[in-house]
Structure formats: structure tokens, C-alpha cells
Amino acid sequence: PKAVSYSLMTTLMCLLEMGFLFRQLHFSQSQAAAARVSLICIGQQCILDAIICVAHLLICAIIPQLFTAFASIAFFKLIIFCIVEMKYIVHISHSRDPQRFFNGGVNLMRQEFAMLHARFYALLILTVPTVWFLSDYVNYLVLIAYSYWIPQIVNNVIKEVRQPFHPLYLYGISCTRLIIPLYLYAWPGNLLHVILGSKNAKVDIGMALALIFWTGVQVGILYLQQRIGPRFMIPAQFLPAKYNYMRPLPPALAQTSQDTVENGSSLECVICYSTIDQATRDYMITPCDHIFHPTCLERWMEQKMECPVCRHVLPVT
């Protein structure tokens, strides 16, 4: 009965996680939105899911009576990390350097995907024995594994990203990922206690509370980064200078603009093909010295963080 209950609970958790992941995939389907997400953040979650999958498979091999219950959990976790999260990682990688993938075509995409899988499984092969040898420090390893939002927090500060995740994904994944450790740490007489025997098993409420607190801290920081600003915790004197899209026309561009006016033409925004009013300075200039209407460029950057003219990567506003 305990195995069946655990299997049903964990299967439901996996289904919810897949739903949250698909919601996030839809939320960040544009190149600009995907580029805001940390690869390390998603990769760490992928490794965590893979470890959970391998752990359940090992228990299936050691205790055949639990095969049916644990194999289904391993199957769902396999789908999550091997298909859904891997697809998301590839999408994020593609969004970081779209021009490279565009020039390389389908063959480059296949090579990158194969290399990604090779690196992931190599890391997984190294991680599993490492966890086994450091089993005496399992609580510390669990806290490290459940620090998967930290890379995104750092990424938000570096790139000044405000909202990389859909709220449903952020809060949903944070809650569902806590189910297994809280069950093992805080539920008396859980399935792990049965496997280990009552003499070797014990409840660790302190560790359960520490996990909840640590996850809550990470989610809280991400929430504050969205509401207040991604660098709210960094003193102003340590912040790097931001690029000014409203800067004056550089000499070369000003001369080109003057020549255009003298020839009886007008300076146009290449996005909407409408005239740019230089007198009111109603324009934005990219680092590559291309000029656009503010509204046009802002809408463009919601989809792609690259110059519409030369594909130069654009800094965050």
C-alpha cells in the first residue's frame, strides 16, 4: 500500500511538472524570452530529475517487488529530463546565438543536440557515483541540488533580466520539487523507512524546514527581482553602466542623416518604413549605429534581442 500511494503521489507530481514546463515553453517561445533564461538553472533541474530517475531504477533492480510502482515514476522522470527539459535547453541555446544556427542549418542543430546529450550524460555518470561516495553528506548535497534557482538569480543580475519565468512555472515547480524530499524527511513511516528498516530510519523535520526555507528564499528573491528590479540587492556604485538607446546621433550617422536630408529624402525606420523625426529626437540608436522608432525597436526586442539590420546582439534596455 505504501508503494502504491507513493507511486500515485509522485506520478501526479510528474504530470504537474510536465504541465508547468509546457507552460514555460510557451511563455518563452520567442527568442528574446528564451535568452533571458539561465542554461545552468534548467540544466541543474535536468540533472536533478535524471538523478531521481536513476535512483528509482536502482531501487527497481534491488527490490523487484517495487518494480511496477517505481518503474512508472522513473518513466515519467525520463520523459521530463530527456525530452521536455532537453528540448528547452536546446531552445535556450539557439536563442543565445540564432545567427550561428541560422548559418549552420539543420546539420549544426543536430550536432549541437548530440553534443548536448553527450555532455549531459557524461555529467550524469560523474554525478551518480559522486553522490554515492558523499552519502555521509547527503543533506548538504540535497541543499545544493535544490539551489537550482540561484543561477537564474545571478543571470538576472548580470543581464538585468526582470521576468524570465511564467509565475505558474516558478511557483509550481518550486512546490512540486519539494514533494519527494519532504515525504522522505518529514513523513513518519514512509516508504524509505520501510526499505531501510525502522531501526535505521528517522524523521528529520529540521532538514525539511530548511529545504522549505531555502526554496522560499530563492523564489522570494526572484519575485523581488521582478517587482523591484533584478539588481535591487546590489549597491548602486557596483552596478555596471547601462547602454543608452536615446544617446545623441554619432558623427558618422549625423553626417549620413544630413546628406539624406540635403538629397531631399528622409531618414526612415527600417522596421515600419516611416520617417524618423530627428528634431524631436524621437528615436533609439543601437550600439551598431542603426536608428529606429522607440516603439518599433521595443516591440522588436520583445521577440529578438538582435539588430533588425545587421543581427548584432542588442543589450538589455
UniProtKB/TrEMBL annotation:
GO terms for cellular component: endomembrane system. It is found in: Endomembrane system. The chain crosses the membrane at residues 6-25, 46-67, 73-92, 113-134, 140-158, 168-185, 205-224. This is RING-type E3 ubiquitin transferase. It catalyses: S-ubiquitinyl-[E2 ubiquitin-conjugating enzyme]-L-cysteine + [acceptor protein]-L-lysine = [E2 ubiquitin-conjugating enzyme]-L-cysteine + N(6)-ubiquitinyl-[acceptor protein]-L-lysine. GO terms for biological process: proteasome-mediated ubiquitin-dependent protein catabolic process. It comes from Octactis speculum. Signal peptide: none annotated. Its main location: membrane. It comes from the Eukaryota. PROSITE patterns: ZF_RING_2. Residues 269-311 form the RING-type domain. Its EC number is 2.3.2.27.
